[in-house]
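for the recovery benchmark. tokens below, seq after
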């Protein structure tokens, strides 16, 4: 590597630190999505209550190695554990929301009069999930132990689905430079703004909380794709979930993309099989995606869109982290290319005609350029608003207030987006 390439790599690594949060045990609650601020939508439908929130479980699945007394990590290390372990996590907020009115105020206020800190209090592992990968390990868990964990985990998921009023599972897959704790906290805030519907799982792959672990983490992401794919198969075969929705962020979008691609190649999705058997993917969402767009195009040709109910790619021309990543790889990244006007007309027309693919440019969305412009799904109330509208109502972008020009396949945010939300929610509620 020459000196210029080395300097670019170092700069890229520095900017990409927004993908993760290092070894942290608390985060500040993200801004409220615009849809909860500008409309009278009830983010807690049915019989939502403070008691319900306190008793809604947050699940996790991780293939990190469990921490020992000799490790600096408290719960799970950044080493590859090879098998998946499932459990539940307890998250608290400070200052505490003491009444139901406090909960609503925190959720529907912009701006808030103070910061609210989320902290990870307790982690309870259920055990190792069933996998055929144990035959390559020393001292693996027994088949009986894995089977018992599988039954217990599936049972708790089904109980959560039955009590929540929505038979959907949501899985968040984090980016690079994360320890175990931060993605769990992000998952809890996403679960909160989803109104505690369905069952929420934080998938914790063994990223490393180190600024210089970028390329190591990219390789690890590839090595853990099989585990994520096996988890999707397990949930489809052993739970009563109607759909499984995936949200992949930054390097974590690689796992989501690859797992979906492999399911497509294997013909193992409910959409691909006439009998409805297979993986039941709903929304597949990539945010700040650090993927070669040519590879994405090849996956489309392989039938990628034959797997999920809908596939969404959020992008930004102001994503500085991906801007420097494109210099390192000498190619644009999937999370930025759609913001340019360089698509050839034939490709643009083809992409525009794909009904279950949405390419969304967030460049003009409020606060989408905060920091280095990479974490906009949390920093921008407009982007999070669109994200939750798509998951809650499953309406296409045009029915969520977005627009696109006649010649472009890319959806954008209008300048009067907040003013449109009241009618959007009204129409969506009527349709539902």
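predicted aa per position
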């Amino acid at each position: 590597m020459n000196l210029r390439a080395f300097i670019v790599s170092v700069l890229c690594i520095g900017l990409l630190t927004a993908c993760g949060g290092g070894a942290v045990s608390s985060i500040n609650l993200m801004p409220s999505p615009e849809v909860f601020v500008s409309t009278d939508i009830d983010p807690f439908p049915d019989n939502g209550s403070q008691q319900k929130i306190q008793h809604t479980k947050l699940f996790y699945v991780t293939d990190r190695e469990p921490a020992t007394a000799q490790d600096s990590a408290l719960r799970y290390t950044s080493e590859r554990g090879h098998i998946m372990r499932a459990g539940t996590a307890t998250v608290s907020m400070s200052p505490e929301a003491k009444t139901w009115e406090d909960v609503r105020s925190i959720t529907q206020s912009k701006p808030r009069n103070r910061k609210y800190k989320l902290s990870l209090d307790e982690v309870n592992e259920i055990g190792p999930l069933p996998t055929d990968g144990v035959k390559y390990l020393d001292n693996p868990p027994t088949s009986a132990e894995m089977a018992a964990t599988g039954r217990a985990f599936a049972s708790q998921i089904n109980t959560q689905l039955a009590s929540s009023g929505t038979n959907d599972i949501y899985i968040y897959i984090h980016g690079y430079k994360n320890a175990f704790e931060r993605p769990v906290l992000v998952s809890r805030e996403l679960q909160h703004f989803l109104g505690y519907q369905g069952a929420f799982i934080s998938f914790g792959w063994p990223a490393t909380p180190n600024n210089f672990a970028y390329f190591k983490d990219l390789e690890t992401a590839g090595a853990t794709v099989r585990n994520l794919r096996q988890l999707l198969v397990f949930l489809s075969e052993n739970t009563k979930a109607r759909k499984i929705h995936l949200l992949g962020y930054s390097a974590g979008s690689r796992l989501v993309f690859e797992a979906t691609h492999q399911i497509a190649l294997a013909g193992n999705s409910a959409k691909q099989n006439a009998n409805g058997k297979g993986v039941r993917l709903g929304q597949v969402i990539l945010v700040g995606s650090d993927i070669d767009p040519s590879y994405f195009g090849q996956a489309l040709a392989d039938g990628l869109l034959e797997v999920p109910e809908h596939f969404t790619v959020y992008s930004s021309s102001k994503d500085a982290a991906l801007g420097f990543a494109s210099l390192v790889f000498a190619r644009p990244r999937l999370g930025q290319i759609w913001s340019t006007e360089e698509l050839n007309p034939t490709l643009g027309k083809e992409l525009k005609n794909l009904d279950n693919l949405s390419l969304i440019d967030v460049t003009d969305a409020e606060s989408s350029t905060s920091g280095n412009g990479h974490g906009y799904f949390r920093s921008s109330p407009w982007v999070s608003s669109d994200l939750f509208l798509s998951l809650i109502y499953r309406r296409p972008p045009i029915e969520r207030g977005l627009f696109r020009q006649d010649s472009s396949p890319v959806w954008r945010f209008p300048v009067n987006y907040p003013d449109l939300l009241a009618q959007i929610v009204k129409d969506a509620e009527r349709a539902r």
